[in-house]
Amino acid sequence: MARRPKAKKKRPPFGIPKEIILPTGQDAWPYTFIADDSGGGCGKVPLPADAAHEDVQTAVFTQLADLTRMFHGVEIDVEWSSLTPDSWVGHIRRVTTEELAPPGAAPGVG
Questions:
Q1: What is the pTM (predicted TM-score) of this model?
Q2: What are phi and psi of 72, to 5 degrees?
Q3: Most buried residue among 32, 56, 73, 78 by CB atoms closer than 10 A?
Q4: For the CA atoms of the chain, what is the radius of gyration?
């Protein structure tokens, strides 16, 4: 009797993000994120160099939040603060399901 090979669970390509570092670039917006497994990653935001930093922060966070939800099933939120006049750091925290409920909704009802 032939045995079916055990299916290995594929490990997500990165851990849950803890911090985002966003410096202003010359012609692009580079960013780096640090994850809870001492890993992380980096990339560039496809927005013009003269874009508002709030728009760039939103673009970076939205992408990381979507990937974290997809790979880990976890919702996250970010709080941005200034590192220098032209760079920012986003401190990420997990969001509980109670915090995701729409305003006025009774917890546990649904």
A1: 0.75
A2: -120, -15
A3: 56
A4: 18
Residue 103: per-residue pLDDT: 53
Q: Is the pLDDT of residue 105 over 50?
A: no
Residues 6+ apart with CB under 8 A from 109: none
- Residue pair 61/78 in contact (Cβ under 8 Å)? The answer is yes
List the one residue out of 26, 5, 17 whose CA is nearest residue 76.
Answer: 17
Give the integer Cα–Cα distance in Å for 15 and 41: 10
* Tokens encoding 55: 């728009």
Q: How far is residue 33's CA from residue 48's CA, in Å, rounded to a whole number?
A: 20
Decide: helix, strand or coil at residue 37.
coil
With a CB cutoff of 8 Å and minimum separation 6, the contacts of 19 are 33, 34, 89, 90, 91, 92
